[in-house]
Amino acid sequence: MHKTGNIFLVGLMGAGKTTVGKLLAKHLHKTFLDSDHELEQRTGVSIPVIFELEGEAGFRVREANLISELAQRSDIVLATGGGAVLRPENRMTLAEHGIVVYLNANVEDLWNRTRHDRNRPLLQTANPKAKLRELLEQRDPLYREIADIIVTSGHHSVNNVVREVEQKIAALDGQAQATSNTEHANTER
């Protein structure tokens, strides 16, 4: 595992980052954080209010500063906001400070999970399902660009998703250990 022991969850709203992140952190004995909830606690207002007062651009600046700060911690599981990957500095920070897990879900599953949630400013449109489709098309390549692990979270139970993430992290750790052992052996020759 990366030396910080951090795990960063990325994916669209409704992919299960918070739900999976809480259980994953519990299983791995790490601290769970959600960047949107952290931002709400620090500002004292909801994400929709930040969007209303500062627009998406203002929200993204606050989010970038928060991610930069939180990524400096060790042994955390961080659920990021769905649009955190839009800023190159966020992608670089996440990729450099931990294992990035992309929770991927299809538009239908995302829609079913978010359609009654009024706390999603980007979905307050005439056609929220079309907006989800547009966001997925825009962001999927960015999620994939930085992901160390990709797990489908659509129809699977939270326990199954967490188990798959844990298995893939263990496989990554095994690869990293094997590489380290090989490099160590080569330097001793």
CATH architecture annotation name: 3-Layer(aba) Sandwich
Mean pLDDT: 89
Give the topology string: H per helix, E per strand: EHEHHEHEHHEH
Outline the low-pLDDT stretches.
none
What name does the CATH topology carry? Answer: Rossmann fold
- Side-by-side strand order of the widest sheet: 2-3-1-4-5
CATH class: Alpha Beta
Question: How large a portion of the residues is in β-strands, by DSSP E?
Answer: 5-15%
Kindly state the percentage of residues in helix: 55-70%
> N-to-C terminal Cα separation, in Å?
26 Å
Let me know the largest β-sheet. Answer: 5 strands, parallel
Q: Return Rg in Å.
A: 17 Å
List the total number of helices: 7
Number of strands: 5
How many structural domains can be distinguished in the coordinates?
Answer: 1
The structural class is alpha/beta
CATH superfamily: P-loop containing nucleotide triphosphate hydrolases
The rough form would be described as globular
